[in-house]
Amino acid sequence: MLVEMFQLLFTIVSIEAVLILTLGFGTPARRVVVKLLDLSKQGRAPLVAKTVAATMLVLFGSVMFSTIQIHTRVSDSGGVANSTDQVMFANCLLEAFLMGTVLFLAMVIDRMHYYTRELQITRRNLEIAVNKGKTGA
């Protein structure tokens, strides 16, 4: 089960990285991604996204708490960790890192989408103003 969760988190991180790269460069795929993100912010989708993010945040906190417990147990035993604690600590750290990365990249995607939309609106308004200036002069 642990391996499946890591595969899922790595897949999500990869998809988010591709979305960020797509939003970062002015390719034809960017319009499609912006349209899809626009559609995903309509209806009940924002509520679902916030619920999933809150659940991941709670899981992230739980994993961090487990990591701190393992670290405290190792510190109390004189700084010597057995192999089980080392494996559990490494898995908790990897899980916490991946969840934190997923949450951070989701925020980056949201902000990049917002700024891309604002840039499109500003360019459209500027083009309209330039066209009005040419016809009025």
UniProtKB/TrEMBL annotation:
Q: How does it sit in the membrane?
A: Multi-pass membrane protein
**What subcellular locations does the record give?**
Endoplasmic reticulum membrane
Indicate the principal place this protein occupies in or around the cell: endoplasmic reticulum
**Its GO CC terms?**
endoplasmic reticulum membrane
Keywords attached to this Swiss-Prot or TrEMBL record, sorted alphabetically, are: Endoplasmic reticulum, ER-Golgi transport, Membrane, Protein transport, Transmembrane, Transmembrane helix, Transport
Does Isomerase appear among the keywords?
no
| Record function comment | May play a role in anterograde transport of membrane proteins from the endoplasmic reticulum to the Golgi.
Q: Which family does it belong to?
A: Belongs to the BCAP29/BCAP31 family.
Q: What is this protein called?
A: Endoplasmic reticulum transmembrane protein
What organism does the record attribute this protein to?
A: Arabidopsis lyrata subsp. lyrata (Lyre-leaved rock-cress)
